[in-house]
Amino acid sequence: MAKHNELGKEGELLALEFLKEKGYEILEQNYRLGKAEIDLIITKENWLIAVEVKTRSTNYFGNPEEFVNAKKKKMLVEAMNSYVIEHDLDVEVRFDIIAVLKQQNDFKIEHIEDAFLFF
């Protein structure tokens, strides 16, 4: 596995543990619809949340959350719509980003709730 893929998987595992500690219930990991993938689908209170995890080893070219572009957002929305229909859910949906930045041997995790309003 390429080094950047290993870093991405490590970031997803850290995000998963971070969210569990914050009281979120994990419903799905790596949910796929065609080419779209939602890293995590979680729930807390009355929210169904699609989580995109972005992990970077440096912020030299920008912060991790800045790499969620318009095309990715569109694909995430379509995949989440499919998930809601597939499971016949009537819930409020939001899209969060977990930004993971590796700094030497440590990781900084930032949870951006309702991220599509800001990016």
UniProtKB/TrEMBL annotation:
- Enumerate the InterPro entries for this protein: Restrct_endonuc-II-like (IPR011335), tRNA_endonuc-like_dom_sf (IPR011856), UPF0102_YraN-like (IPR003509)
Source domain of life is: Bacteria
Pfam families recorded for this chain? UPF0102
GO MF annotation: an example: nucleic acid binding
The UniProt family comment states: Belongs to the UPF0102 family.
| NCBIfam families found in the cross-reference section | PRK12497.1-3 (NF009150)
This protein is called: UPF0102 protein TJEJU_3771
Q: Which organism is it from?
A: Tenacibaculum jejuense
